[in-house]
Amino acid sequence: MNRKKNVKKAPECPHCRSSTSVKYIGKRYAVYPAGCVAMISLPFAALHQAQQPVIYSCETCEKEFGVRSWIASMCQFILFVLLATIGLVILAVFFGF
């Protein structure tokens, strides 16, 4: 059986449009800071970590750029909705709406 491996293609650089010289760097924070987990609780910290983009570096123009997967975009949307809801509840409590 001759199976081809499912190799993920490197994304194209948004600055110079080159896709041949893109290098994978990873996420900015591979290990999440414990202080953030203590301040914003574990579920919010997990959502925050999941929504961060994967960082790539273009060797042609020497710039870094990030690419979010659809799961990371979904986590970013969920985090935005949760934080907006919490903010509106706090405003309602303070101003008595």
Automatic annotation (TrEMBL):
Transmembrane portions of the chain: 70-95
Name the UniProt record assigns to this protein: LITAF domain-containing protein
Alphabetic keyword roster: Membrane, Transmembrane, Transmembrane helix
